[in-house]
Amino acid sequence: MSFSQSFLSRMAALTSLVLPLVSAGFDPSSKTNIAVYWGQNSYGQATSQERLSYYCSNTEIDIIPIAFLLAIDTPTINVANAGNNCTTFAGTELLDCPQIEADIEECQSSYNKTIMLSIGGATYTEGGFTSSTAAIAAAQEIWAMFGPVQASSTVDRPFGDAVVDGFDFDFESVTENTAYFAAELRALMNAATAAGDKEYYLSAAPQCPYPDAADNDMLDGAVSFDFIMIQFYNNYCSISTFVAGDTAQPYFDYTTWDAWAQTVSANPNVKILVGIPANTGAGSGYTTGATLEAALQYSETFSSFGGVMMWDMSQLYANTGFLDEVAADLGSGGGSPTPTSTSKTSTTTSTTLRTSTTASATTTTLTRTSSTTLSSSSSSSSASASSTGAPVAEWGQCGGIGYTGSTVCASPYSCVCNSVWWCQCE
């Protein structure tokens, strides 16, 4: 063996020892992906949210969506206390965040994390777009701001030269024309990848009641998603309602979303991440121990299952041992330490939406498949109950088909309906 061959062999051996210590980011072939939102510091303490790069060395975390781009028409970034390390672009209120720029690049290059930009959030109020043309133009602007640097563009870039790995949609109220917005981003990402750039991803975070009122126009067969992170919390279908040994699971209804993945999704290989609260204060439905383990083992039996999403990083790191527990339940383990039967049928119809994609000089066709899930149980009840009873606390149920409790929310919350099945105090 020559010196060069010997050297290469030793380097290969060293590489084989080092690589397993580095998380590989989102893996569509894996059922152990873990995504954790960063940016909103929902735990609420001055020191409970560290800078982004602080979390990237943790090998149990694969995907970090940055939350949130909470306005699109006039782009607005909110990252809670992390914004204290940003300035603003001259003449605007848009954050300029060189620390986040450096952290994104470090997380990607040193730790292979998948860094997404999450768009929306609970305070998003724009309602989508007035037309398909407006949606397409907005997508092109967002791509210029957070995608590859465009020499011809003069748009302000909040994260500098850093390029996110994709976009996540967390709309939590009804929107219009967002399918065109998402499809344009998908087309722009695909064109960049085809031209030799990296792989880009598209995800969404719908509520667990199906269909999701806010995201359904995107999820209804119009746009190809790589993964979705379903919020199985703050709803009647929370993971805490899982009943071990019950194949029907009338509340934690993963089966309906699996059917969506197989028959409605534009990408039949889309992966579903089960979204859970990372701590008791992260949302209603927090669960741990045997119930969580059983629910995840049940979910793993579906081919669409791709792992777990948690809200949010600040809550997770305040809940010592929970990340290790989730990783162990998924079968990954070994990472860095941290503090009644209901029959359903589906029917589908198709329509076609057309829009020109100027950035890629092609015509993009959106094929929508509308799906209706029919339950054998009666749905003739009113979507909301009478305004009686004691005030309901934040995230508690205040309406929905079959609900008979109080519809009055404790101050300062109001009752918001995510679907005909579920309304909650927000």
UniProtKB/TrEMBL annotation:
Residue ranges annotated as coiled coil are: none
Q: What's a GO cellular component annotated to this UniProt protein?
A: extracellular region
* Pfam families cross-referenced by the UniProt entry: CBM_1 (PF00734), Glyco_hydro_18 (PF00704)
Task: Recall the taxonomic lineage recorded for the source organism.
Answer: Eukaryota, Fungi, Dikarya, Ascomycota, Pezizomycotina
> What range does the record give for the signal peptide?
1-24
Q: In which compartments does the protein localize?
A: Secreted
**Does this entry carry the keyword Signal?**
yes
**Stretches that traverse the bilayer:** none
Stretches of Low complexity bias are at: 337-388
User: Which species expresses this protein natively?
Assistant: Coniella lustricola
Q: Where is this region: Disordered?
A: 332-390
**Which PROSITE patterns does this UniProt record tie to the protein?**
CBM1_1 (PS00562), CBM1_2 (PS51164), GH18_1 (PS01095), GH18_2 (PS51910)
User: Per the UniProt entry, what are the Gene Ontology biological process annotations, in alphabetical order?
Assistant: chitin catabolic process; polysaccharide catabolic process
Q: Which UniProt keywords apply?
A: Carbohydrate metabolism, Chitin degradation, Chitin-binding, Glycosidase, Hydrolase, Polysaccharide degradation, Secreted, Signal
Q: Does the keyword Metal-binding apply?
A: no
Give the InterPro entries listed for this entry: CBD, CBD_sf, GH, Glyco_hydro18_cat, Glyco_hydro_18_chit_AS, Glycosyl_Hydrlase18_Chitinase
Q: Where is the CBM1 domain?
A: 390-426
Residue ranges constituting the GH18 domain according to the UniProt record:
32-333
GO molecular function (one): cellulose binding
> According to its UniProt record, which reaction does this protein catalyse?
Random endo-hydrolysis of N-acetyl-beta-D-glucosaminide (1->4)-beta-linkages in chitin and chitodextrins
EC number from the UniProt entry: 3.2.1.14
Q: Which family does it belong to?
A: Belongs to the glycosyl hydrolase 18 family.
Q: Which protein, by its recorded name, is this?
A: chitinase
